[in-house]
Structure formats: C-alpha cells, structure tokens
Write a structure and sequence with these properties.
- The protein is α/β, with parallel strands linked by helices.
- The chain has four domains: about 60-220, 3-Layer(aba) Sandwich (Rossmann fold); about 240-280 and about 390-445, Elongation Factor Tu (Ef-tu), domain 3; about 285-385, NADPH-cytochrome p450 Reductase, Chain A, domain 3 (Up-down Bundle); about 460-605, Nucleotide-binding domain of ferredoxin-NADP reductase (FNR) module (Rossmann fold).
- Helices cover about 40% and strands about 20% of the residues.
- It has 23 helices and 21 strands.
- The strands form five sheets. Strands 1, 2, 3, 4, 5 and 6 form a six-stranded parallel β-sheet that branches. Strands 12-9-16-7-8-13 form a six-stranded antiparallel β-sheet, covered by helices on one side. A five-stranded parallel β-sheet has the order 19-18-17-20-21, with helices on both faces.
Length: about 600
C-alpha cells in the first residue's frame, strides 16, 4: 500500500472513531464525563499503564465519592443501603458502600458526602456493627466535621419506646460536629419501603448536585464498585419454595409447640452461611380474616386499593396487612373512631399502650370496643389504618454443607387464649398449621455478617442458646463438622423441662459422643423447685468460661432480647470482673473489645 493511501485510511479510521466516540458520550452524565476526562488524561500521560483511572489526590477522591454506611442487626438496613447504592450508581455517582463495622471510626474525618442507614436494636441500642462508630461520634475524640454533607435514614418500630433512637443519635451527633444535612432525617416504622424509597430519591438528587459542583471544581472523579450484588431472589422478590416438613419436636405434655421446619430451595441457586436468617412471607389464617370481617360487618368482596392494586377486603386482610400484630397507631385510630373510654385511657400512658398493642390482635381490639351505631366505617378507611404485612426472619438451623438445597428452621408456635378464641402468630401459625407439607412458601435469605463462625477452625466457641435460640448453633455444629474443625465447642441450652423441651436432644448427644461437642451445660427451669437458667450455668462455670475467653474463644448468644440476653451479658461481665480481677469499668471494656473483635456476637430478637 502506498504511504499516501495508508495516511488516508488512518485519517478515515480516526474520523470514524471520533464520530463513534462522540456518539458514545452523548448520554453520559456530568459525573460520568468527569470520570472519562480523568481516565483519558491518565491514559495520555502514561499509555503503558494499567487501564484503570490514575490515582488522584485523596482530597479530590473523597470529595467526589458518595459514602453509604449502614448499621444493621437483622439485615433490613443493609438491604436498604444496597438498594440505595445501586440507585446512586445508576445515576452515575461514585459510591462506597460499607457496614459501619468495616471502617475505623477515625476515618469519618476523610468522608465528605455521607448517607447513613441505621436500625435501632432493642430499647434504643445501636446494632452491633454500629456500636463503635456510634460511641465515637458521641465522644470527646470525635473530630469537627464542617466539611461533611450527610443525611440519615432511621429504621425502627413505633411499638418500642426509643423509636429510631440510633438514627436520631447519628443525626444529632453529626450536626453537633458541624456537618451539614443534605436532606432531613427520615424515621421509618416496620413498614419502611415507601418512606425509604422517597428518602432515597431525595438524597440521591441532593448528593448528585453537590458532587457535580465538586467535579466542576476538580474535574476528577473515581468510580467505586459496590462490594455486593443483589441476589435474584430477595425480600421484594422472594423465591416460592416447597415446605417439606413441619414436625413438632417438643413433647406431648410440653407447654410449648416448637416445630422443626424443612424447606426445599430447589433450583433457586439461593445460598446461605451458618448464622444467616431466612425471611418468610406468610398469609393470615382464613378463619381469623373471616372473624374480623364478620365483626366489622363488611362484605368480604368489597374492593379496597392497596398501593396500585385493587383487591377484595378478604384478600387484603389475608395477604397484605398485619392482623396478628397490632400497632399502637391502630389502637389510637380505633379508640377515637369508637370513642371507647377503655382504649382512650390507654393513650395517656405510652408504656401501657405498647403492652396492650403487643398482647392483642386487631380483631380483639375491635371486639373490645364496638363502633356506635351512628358511626360509619368503610373497608378502605379500615385497611388504611393497618400496617402492611412484613416477613418474619428466622435464624437458620442448618448448614448448606450438610443439607444442600434445603434450609431448616426451628419455629416456636406463638399461641394464647383470648377469651374463647385461640390466637396464633402470623408466620409461626402459617408454618405450623396454615400450610400443608408440599405447599408453597415465599422465602429469601437475609445474610447476617454479625453472626459468623471464626475463620480459624481451631478457635474454640461458646454457644448460648436457650429455647429456639439453639437454632443457629445446630447450623454451627453441622458447619464445623463439614469443615473438620478442631476447635472446642461448648453449648449452653435451657428450656422448661428436660423430658418435654430438650430440642434436638439426640443430635446433641451424638455430637458429644463423637467429640465434636466438647461440653454441654443444661438449664431446665421447671425440673426443680428453684428455677435455673443459662446465666446461672455460666456463673457456675466461671473459671472455665474465663479460661476459654483468655485462649481466644468466640462467644455467641441467640434468643430473647428483653431478658435472657441482658441476663447473660450481666453474667459474663461478672465472670470477667471476678476471674480477671478487673473493675466494673475494665470488665465492660474487656467485653467491648471482644465485641469489636467479633468475638462476642449476638442474634437476639
């Protein structure tokens, strides 16, 4: 080919490439254009370098990145944060998504654009992965943060006194340190999807505007990848699985009905780790729906609007709304609608109101205060006063290494008498009595990185799980066995009686016989005159407990949050103080260090 022809062909190629390049960048956002600018500049300066964008000064990198931090105990806040990150990236933003437990608190000073998604654990407590940052921001060590733009989304439950307290704390402490809000904090109840989506749209719009102004000044931005991917099946799009088994594992004379549940995940591809939870969507019992409709005097075929869907009132009450749990807002609504003095009196004392709501289903509230004859109520007004139904999370009681495509649960049936009626929990009643084996159940995996076996298989573990709190420890043992773990395993289990309530008794005995389970201590509260609980067994074994901790043991607690977990923690603090010859403050710091090192983990509810 002649040199002139080569030159002409090259010119045509360059022209075509330029046209193609112009076409490619037409739809890019300013943020994406800025990234491309930085990338091309780096490429021109060093054509032999990596195809990744060149490193930029830390100030520029920080100022053009949106940081999303979540504090999550059960996974709800993590799920919201992941969706938030995905939406921000779709808008062309550079995103760094992390659990609060994954950062050193001091690095907060390097962040300039921050979105916080925080749940509240129990009575106003921060979730485990948020504790260190939560305490740091409230301490004298916290730096001034005048350069920080932020917003907070709080997840909580209005049935608790300290509603959304962790998110409120983050919001207030960041403000005190000089940070500026991108958008006001939003506090969400258990039905949080709509409020979370609205907040997400608002803060992404604000963050994008702020970041684009930073880019206009620096003209450089780096793109960060989200360190996780959305599963094909999740809370919003659950997998329709098959119920394989629902078997009662408490004795005939037990005061409790505990079920061993086995579910087939089929070809879903869903995977889980020991310590994760299974989310279960459920239908309310038809008999309960019929009772409520009859009491209200509605036509069960009357149409109501739920979101963008029109369904019958019967279908709405069966699949769309909580009727086995009563919110304090519904009690307030019904008290005023019925002008019932017995309910109105409850409204004056928030604590009494919470207790009442927690122990009465919707139909019982309605029956306790019938509407006056002259008061009109239509089906739409009624359902608008109810909470949307939410899935229940159950600690997984199996290791996938052992059961493959199955997932096992240990479910205590919630039931009690309300006058002549037998009331049952929504999800527990559905799994125990509302669905036949072979029936369909909608599920999803809720990963829990705050409840994990130690990476080193030689590390000893102490497991404290009375009642159905033993579920994840069954998974732990299956996993340790599959991994040929050599670390010691010690279980503390308790319930009411040995003969009726020793869950998975044969399995624990087999683990003891094989040597995989090194020790087991049992506390059956009603087998003797004086009640004995797991915390009592801990104190009886104080010397050995402390010895295990000193040689690196991880300690796990699963079960009731309101009493058991607090009593167990008090026992541990007593053991650490006494056997370690430490002051109360030093013992507290010792346990805090265990928690920060992920050697003290809790899955409580």
């Amino acid at each position: 080919m002649l040199p002139e022809q080569q030159k002409l062909n090259q010119t045509m190629l360059d022209t075509n490439q330029l046209a193609s390049f112009k076409q490619s960048i037409n739809d890019l956002s300013p943020l994406q254009l800025a990234w491309a600018s930085g990338y091309l500049a780096a490429k021109a300066e060093n054509t032999g370098a990596s195809t990744a964008p060149a490193a930029v000064a830390s100030a520029s990198e920080v100022s053009t990145t949106l940081t999303i931090l979540y504090g999550s105990q059960t996974g709800n806040a993590k799920g919201v944060a992941k969706k938030l990150a995905a939406q921000a990236i779709s808008e062309g933003l550079s995103v760094e998504l992390k659990s609060m437990g994954e950062i050193k608190p001091k690095t907060i000073k390097n962040i300039t654009h921050l979105l916080v998604v925080a749940s509240t654990n129990g009575e106003g407590e921060a979730p485990d992965d948020a504790i260190a940052l939560h305490e740091f921001l409230a301490s004298k060590k916290a730096p001034k943060l005048e350069h920080l733009h932020y917003s907070v989304l709080s997840l909580g439950d209005t049935s608790y006194e300290f509603f959304c307290q962790t998110g409120k704390d983050f919001d207030l402490n960041l403000e005190k340190l000089g940070a500026k809000r991108m958008a006001p904090r939003v506090d969400c109840d258990v039905d949080y999807d709509a409020d979370a989506n609205t907040w997400t749209t608002t803060v992404i719009t604000q963050a994008k505007a702020l970041l684009e102004s930073e880019i206009a000044a620096s003209n450089v931005v780096t793109l960060a990848k989200v360190n996780s991917t959305e599963a094909l099946y999740n809370k919003q799009s659950p997998y329709v699985a098959e119920l394989l088994l629902s078997q009662k594992i408490t004795g005939r004379d037990s005061a409790k009905d505990v079920r061993h549940i086995e579910i087939d995940l089929g070809e879903s591809g869903l995977t889980y780790q020991a310590g994760d939870a299974l989310g279960v969507w459920f239908d309310n019992a038809v008999a309960l729906v019929d009772e409520l409709i009859t009491e209200l005097g509605f036509d069960d075929q009357e149409i109501v609007v739920v979101g963008d869907e029109s369904v019958t009132i019967a279908q709405a009450l069966k699949t769309k709304f909580e009727i086995t749990q009563t919110s304090i807002q519904f009690v307030d609504f019904w008290a005023n609608k019925a002008q019932a003095t017995n309910l109105i009196a409850l409204l004056e004392d928030r604590s009494v109101l919470r207790d009442y709501a927690a122990n009465h289903q919707v139909v019982d509230v309605v029956k306790s205060a019938p509407l006056p004859n002259e008061t009109k109520l239509n089906a739409q007004e009624f359902v608008d006063a109810l909470r949307k139904i939410t899935p229940r999370l159950y600690s997984i009681a199996s290791s996938q290494s052992e059961v493959e495509e199955e997932v096992h649960l240990t479910v205590g049936l919630v039931q009690y008498q309300a006058g002549d009626a037998n009331r049952q929990g929504g999800a527990s009643g559905f799994l125990a009595n509302g669905i036949e084996e072979g029936g369909a159940v909608k599920v999803f995996i809720e990963h829990n990185d705050n409840f994990r076996l130690p990476a080193n298989n030689e590390t000893p573990v102490i497991m404290i799980g009375p009642g159905t709190g033993v579920a994840p420890f069954r998974a732990f043992m299956q996993e340790r066995e599959a991994n040929d773990a050599t670390g010691d395993n010690w279980l503390f289990f308790g319930d009411q009686t040995f003969t009726q309530d020793f869950l998975y008794q044969v399995e624990w005995q087999n683990y003891l016989k094989s040597g995989l389970l090194s020790k087991i201590d049992l506390a059956f509260s009603r087998d003797q005159a004086e009640k004995i609980y797991v915390q009592d067994r801990l104190l009886e074994n104080a010397d050995e407990i402390f010895s295990w901790l000193e040689r690196g043991a991880h300690i796990y607690v699963c079960g009731d949050m309101s009493r058991m977990a607090k009593d167990v923690e008090a026992a541990l603090l007593s053991i650490i103080a006494t056997k370690g010859q430490l002051s109360e403050e030093q013992a507290t710091e010792y346990l805090k260090d265990l928690r920060n090192a992920k050697r003290y983990q809790k899955d409580v509810y």
